[in-house]
Amino acid sequence: MSSSRKHHIKSLMLSIAKGLLEEEAKEQEEERSRYMEESCPPVSMPRSMQEMQIDDLKIKVQDLMGKFKKPVLRKVRMSADAMLKALLGSNTPLISTGLQQQTVS
C-alpha cells in the first residue's frame, strides 16, 4: 500500500471515530437529563437570584452599621485666629481677622 492510501484510510478511520464519539457524548447527555428528570424533583425558587443577592447585601450593611458606633461630636469654641493657626500651622505669619487693626487713611 502506498503512503497516500494509508494516510487516506487513517483519516477516514479518525473521522468515523470522531462521529461515533460525538454520538456517544450526545447519548450520555440525553441519558443524564432523562435520569435527572425522573429522579430529582424540579427546583423551585420563590424569588429570583438578584432579589436574594440584594437581600444579602442589605443584611451585610445592617451588620456593619451595628458594629460601628458614631462618635458623639462636641461643640468646640474657637476664635478665627486660633482656627487659622490650627489650619495653617504655627510657622506662617498670622493674618489678623479683627477690624480694629485695619486703619483707613
UniProtKB/TrEMBL annotation:
Disordered: region residues: 23-49
Gene Ontology MF terms in the entry: actin binding
Keywords of the record: Acetylation, Actin-binding, Muscle protein
Coiled-coil region: none
Gene3D superfamilies: 1.20.5.350
GO biological process: cardiac muscle contraction; skeletal muscle contraction
Record's GO cellular component terms: troponin complex
Domain of life: Eukaryota
Database matches in Pfam families: Troponin
Role this protein plays: Troponin I is the inhibitory subunit of troponin, the thin filament regulatory complex which confers calcium-sensitivity to striated muscle actomyosin ATPase activity.
UniProt record similarity statement: Belongs to the troponin I family.
Subunit-structure text: Binds to actin and tropomyosin.
UniProt-recorded name of the protein: Troponin I, fast skeletal muscle
